[in-house]
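Design a sequence for this backbone.
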């Protein structure tokens, strides 16, 4: 056997490894439904913000939340977060998970009831990466 370094892997190479991992995990996770969901804030035909997440088992996994600079401070992000949490609850989710870099939105998520579970310091260089979770069973946490 030989080992090969690939500093520019193609999508097919990455998918081959991903498929191998999925095959290995299927006996353990195969029955858990995973779906992708998004909410958008739209003005005319232009997206002014959006949130993208996965619903996986009992969890809402927030991947991206973005609000256009012109809409900041107008509760657009709060409304997007609230809407996707409500949808996730309607689909049976009990908890939410998000990660955020230190220069991004940790205080925003904390304001909305998320609790920091772990921080990776010096990530990727001189920032930090925080992992936050929230129980979706407590409606009083939405401000």
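Sequence:
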């Amino acid at each position: 056997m030989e080992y090969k370094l690939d500093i520019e892997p193609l999508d097919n190479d990455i998918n081959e490894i991903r498929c191998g991992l999925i095959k290995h995990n299927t006996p353990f996770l195969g029955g858990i439904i995973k779906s992708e969901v998004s909410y958008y804030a739209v003005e005319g035909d232009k997206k002014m913000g959006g949130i993208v997440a996965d619903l996986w088992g009992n969890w809402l996994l927030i991947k991206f939340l973005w609000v256009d600079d012109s809409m900041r401070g107008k509760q657009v992000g709060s409304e997007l977060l609230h809407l996707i949490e409500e949808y996730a609850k309607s689909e049976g989710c009990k908890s939410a998970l998000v990660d955020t870099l230190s220069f991004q939105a940790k205080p925003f998520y904390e304001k909305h009831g998320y609790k920091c579970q772990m921080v990776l310091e010096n990530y990727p260089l001189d920032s930090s990466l925080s992992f936050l979770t929230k129980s979706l069973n407590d409606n009083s946490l939405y401000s």
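The mean pLDDT is 94.
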